[in-house]
Every structure is written in structure tokens, then in C-alpha cells.
Amino acid sequence: MTKVVKSHEGRLRMRRVSRINQAMNLCLGALWTENAGAAAGDGPPLAAITVADVRRVAAAYLANADLITAVAR
Q1: How would DSSP label each residue in 3-59?
Q2: Among candidate residues 58, 51, 41, 43, the one with its CA nearest the CA of residue 2
Q3: Is the pTM higher than 0.85?
Q4: Residues in contact with 39: Cβ distance below 8 Å, sequence separation at least 6, in sequence order
Q5: What element of type H or E holds 2?
Q6: What are the residue ranges spanned by the domains of the chain?
Q7: CA neighbours within 13 Å on the CB side: how many for 61?
Q8: pLDDT tens digits, residue range 24-68?
Q9: Which DSSP category does 62 fall into?
């Protein structure tokens, strides 16, 4: 989980490097949140998610289903 969280945070930071991306991020934040100054993507920290949380959600939504192999020609 730590590797995934750090990777995601790094990608978010890189997207905010240029002025154009900063402006776009602030505009999206104004559209998606009540706080016009909030940057898009500023939500609950991913670091708060644990492996147990991922397993719990995966068990609830990714139930074991029979897989089907389809071959198209």
C-alpha cells in the first residue's frame, strides 16, 4: 500500500508542475467541491487506507465469478 500511495502522490504532484495544469486543477476543484480554492484530488488521504480495507472491499465487490474465455476470429 505504501508504494501505491507514494506513486499516486508523485503523479499528482507532477501534474501540478506547470502553470496550465495548476490552473486546470483549481478550476476542476471549483467545479467539484464547495471550496473554490481547493485543488482537484484533495480528498481523504490515501495513506489512511489499509490492506485490510482493500481486502474487505475486494471481497464485497469482486466476488469470485466463473470466468469465460471468448475467442473471436
Answers
A1: HHHHHHHHHHHHHTSSHHHHHHHHHHHHHHSS-TTSPTT--S-GGG--HHHHHHHHH
A2: 51
A3: no
A4: 16, 25, 26, 29
A5: helix 2-15
A6: 2-47
A7: 6
A8: 877 877 787 766 555 555 556 777 888 898 889 888 888 777 778
A9: S
